Amino acid sequence: MSDTTTLKILVHANADLSDALISKAAGGMLPDGGLAERITAEYGVGVELIHEASAGFVALHSALANGSAPMLDSGANIVILSIADDVHALPDLGATAEEAVHRSRDALVGAIRLIKQKMGAHILVANHSTVDPSGDTYNYQGVSPEPISLRIQRLDLMLIGVSHDEGISIIDVDRKVAETGAGGNLSAPMRYLPEAAAIIAGETIRVLADYGFFDDRPLLAQVGAKRKQS
Amino acid sequence: MPLSKPVNTALKTWRTVFGEGTVIENWVKNRYLTSISTEVTKESGPGWVQYSGRRFIVVSESDDFPEPRRGILLKGGCDLPSVFTAGPLLRDGIKGTIAITRHIGGTGGNRSDQILQTLEDLDPAAIAETRKMLKMSEDYFEPTLFDPTFRIPRLPEAGEFPKNVVILSIASDETRQMYRHREHGFIADPGGWWLNQDMNRVLENQEVVEWFRTTFKRIGRMNVEDFRKSNSQLIREIRERLGGEVIYYNTMGLDPANPTHNYQLVKTAHSVRRREFIIALAELSQELGFPIVDVDRILKTAGVKEQVDFAHFPVDRMAPLGAEVFRILRQSELV
Predict the structure, then answer these.
(1) Is A29 helix (H, G, I), strand (E, B) or coil?
(2) pLDDT of A217
(3) In chain A, what are the helix, strand and coil shares in percent, each to the nearest 5?
């Protein structure tokens, strides 16, 4: 890492993601070490992992806007968010699904911009597996609220658009869990068993490594700078 | 390995050396490839009999194919043959006869707007010319999907079946490029023929290529709004004309092994389109009340690491899809 000796990673999420990034000893699900321990072991980089609970993108945006968000004083280099709370809240975020997704997106984009502006931190947002282990809906007529798998699908799609527009990276939990098979890796929607949790941590490390956080060649930052110059 | 593979490989080698359409090539085609496609196997057990061929299965309680007779028609691409794996599940306690068959036509004729187009009055001369130039089947522009019944050509003794259920897939709407006739306005997808051909054969006649370029213009892939409109109308047409129910296959939303985590520099992501179409299909189901085989859920549950792309899954993934079709058919009291 180029200019700091300790990387501060702030996980603003609930158990859906914190379980997968925090060691069992620290209250998470990973018996062989969480994100911090694995990065240190693999790359020799010191990591301070800060965890704070989430109440969704609308609440986060509001707290960042009025200056009350605890993360503002954290000095975090990297902020990791999750769509999970908005998946749960989606039926209450708008009169229609489309309206609810727009509201969630607007809040996320607002939060991203404020985090960049006020903290200068890099932002990663985790999507989630669309698989509901107990879900078997095949006809959607009259199903209210919408099945959680459909709500996850909506926000996973929304997140790709936000990545495109705002340049944030996605921890693609949906793909990684699907590759290994969601069948034996979920205890409930967006709740992962230890093997999947370790895979999610591994994917997070891959994304961070891609940015060059663990060496002196920050690849994505260079690409972005070049585009701005041209 | 099926016999068709070595036979086709041998024919390709033969053509390279001796050219196309020789007496030997035609003899081999008639002797081997035709018999492969006409092969019918029969299995039986207590209270059931099943006949299976390349594009169909018939499950019945006896060899005289008794009533009630129900027909299930598949209209779509590479994913729909997984329906045939529901056959063994249909055997247990079967009353009457159930036939499942693929609709005629290849990959290039399954987009919902193409199917709807067959209900329109198209210029006979223009479509005849297009069929000839692009080697399309006689039925390509015909509304055969809306015929009230179907027969199994390889099993004529089974008789005629009503189209109680039509199973469609959204994969063609999501992936296929389309071309519009510049003068007469109808659409066509020549890629269906190109798909399984050597490009030397496709491009051997430059006159055809030039004719296509000047006669048709590219309109590309379907957008999600057109997808909604087109399928909404298609469902209504099938229900009204056939009195049957419609079941859709959705498709897997993600690209296996695609490590993209930042989409800022990505111009077009097909996984985005697929997710849009999956959501749009669920919304259509909310509105029109038809069942969906959730291919996305089933494949992700089983694991997709071995998949080379979103649409072509290993053979062992067929059975869970067939089981889901069976569950839907039973719970919806369609069989």
Answers:
(1) coil
(2) 61
(3) 55, 15, 30
Q: What is the pLDDT of residue A35?
A: 95
The per-residue pLDDT for range B91-131, each reduced to its tens digit, is 999 999 999 999 976 667 899 999 999 999 999 999 999 99
Q: Which value, to the nearest 10 degrees, does the dihedral of the CA atoms of residues A155, A161, A162, A168 take? A: 110
DSSP H stretches of helix in chain B: 4-18, 23-28, 34-38, 87-91, 112-117, 124-133, 171-175, 191-194, 199-202, 206-215, 224-242, 270-288, 295-302, 318-331
CA A217 to chain centroid, in Å, comes to 24
Token digits for A134?
A: 């107990």
Q: At what angle do helices B295-302 and B318-331 cross, to 10 degrees?
A: 140
Chain A residues whose CB is inside 8 A of the B297 CB are 130-132, 135, 149
Q: Is any Cβ of chain B less than 8 angstroms from the Cβ of A179? A: yes
Report yes or no: A39 and A47 within 8 Å, Cβ to Cβ.
yes
ipTM (interface predicted TM): 0.92
Residues A160-180 pLDDT 10s: 999 999 999 999 999 999 999
Look at A207 and B288 and tell me if their CB atoms are within 8 Å: no
Contacts 24+ apart (CB under 8 A), A63-69: A64/A110, A64/A111, A64/A114, A64/A115, A64/A118, A65/A110, A65/A114
- Cβ B303–A130 below 8 Å, yes or no? no
pLDDT, tens digit, 9 for 90 and up, residues B279-318: 999 999 999 999 999 999 999 999 998 887 777 888 888 9
